[in-house]
């Protein structure tokens, strides 16, 4: 049985319930989930809107990151989805979840998954600030 249950780069709203359901497993004693949302400010400046773009290789890179986490921890279920396109304040941008036999393993695996996704998967954020300035952020979430 493949422990990587759900991966995706989507242009539609993300569901915490879908991700949590995907990783459910009777062998798991702990499930850790991280939900990244669009916040109203960054660098102390008000954000008015943002969008995410993904390189065509993003799904393959997401799988590579997920496989690395699954190989490094006793994972019983893993899921990661990231949104692309235009998002509003409060929208969910990314969800990762990892189930493991024990809570500490689940926390560590989930943290590794989101950190590696952010650092290695080619998804870029373009945010526009209230003063009219904007910036591209070289990684996701």
From TrEMBL:
InterPro entries: MoaE_sf, Mopterin_biosynth_MoaE. Pfam families: MoaE. SUPFAM superfamilies: Molybdopterin synthase subunit MoaE. It comes from the Bacteria. Transmembrane segments: none annotated. Gene3D superfamilies: Molybdopterin biosynthesis MoaE subunit. PANTHER family: MOLYBDOPTERIN SYNTHASE RELATED. This is Molybdenum cofactor biosynthesis protein MoaE. It comes from Nonomuraea indica.
